[in-house]
Amino acid sequence: MIGEAASLTRAWALFRDPVTTEKRRLLGDRWSALDDSLKLPGQGLGQKATGCGATMGIQPRCDFSCTGCYLGSDANKIPALPVDAVLRQLDTLRAWLGPKSNVQITDGEVTLRPADEVVQILRYARSIGIVPMLMTHGDTFRRQPGLLERLMREANLTEVSIHIDITQRGRDGYCAPRSELELMPLRDEFAQLVRNARRTTGRKLRAATTMTITDDNLPDVASVVRWTIENRDAFSLISFQPLAQVGRTRRNLTGVTPQALWGEVARALNEYGSELPGTAPMHFGHPDCTRFVPFLAVQERGAKPRLVQFIRDTPDDVAIMEEFFHKGLGGVAFRDDRPLEAIARGAGMLVREPRWFAGRVRRWLDARLRESLGTTFFPLLARGIARRVRVDGVTLTSHHFMSPAELTTEVGRARLDACVFRVPYGETMVPMCQANAGGVRDRFYGELTGSSGAAASSGTKLL
Predict the structure, then answer these.
(1) Tens digits of per-residue pLDDT, 135-149?
(2) Which residues are CB-contacts of 9 (< 8 A; sequence separation ≥ 6)?
(3) For the CA atoms of 69, 74, 77, 83, what is the dihedral angle to 10 degrees?
């Protein structure tokens, strides 16, 4: 009865304010801290989200020896943070990010920690309002069947990200792949692992996949995009990460430009009825840091899916987005809502702006669907309910980390100021590029070992 009363109270609060007072305050803090040049209509930081964060030192060790690795040369000698220290990091992240905090549980390979400790850390994150995403190379799940299911059941894990690409060294059965095409069976294996875990536990699990991009695997990006679209029921998001010369990354590897990367992405999207002239207008923080494009995927039985870009760089789409933010709805987040909470939050949004949703938004949505698919919202909804058509989503994104030389440039400093992805270091939240390329991670590791030599070993400057 107590739990039911708490759920009803929570639902009522979300009906009255679908965003919450705390989230609005933190969004205001992020928006006011942004440079005016970045306060664009599609700016997500401060309008949609408060940013995201990650742990540091939770498990520096990794059993892979990847050719593109952002950890320092001493990482495998660094002791993992005690659980209590990890929990304090989570407290800092929760205070910075607010409710529904997007936090990556990462550093080296987190699943090498004792499973009981991982469960304890994930449970605590959930208890304070964080939505943790476990970042992993995934092989521990292959070697220890049932581990993923245990984390879902005992720690309420709802998000996982699995990194797969040819820079990895040490994976069972895939020693030194030369092409991303060689890794397609591995991707299939992980997609099935995710599906099986959902079916076995009866629980939700959102899965993403990440991929380091170099000159060597750039030609395979289009194939990986096609695979992701076809397997969007398992992996609904893919993050491409062009290589940066950080940590123990091999010096003979080179990254790629955003233009080259997204040119390959667009080449694959053309096959699904979607032209992508650019990634505007949506972004988070500095446009040189993160690019992302969400799509609606609509698939008739026996046909290829059609992709509809959710917000295009057109006057009508940008205007709808601006109105949504200006009406104070940008901070709404349904992720991990219980059914009653989601209903209450959605109803709260409709009650706040009934005429806008029923009029302006409906007309815009119908026009978009008619243009792209030859139908409108309610007929598409009816066909979806009748299971005559499959409707879901897939998001393509890229994160562009900086090398040490970039940090000291004018653009580099502007990117650090607008960083959306931060880690706790002492009493401050440090940009991830400053942690990776500016020596903060090495300094942190040196403090863990009581040594100052770790920072010097990477040859990076402490900012």
Answers:
(1) 999 999 999 999 999
(2) none
(3) -70
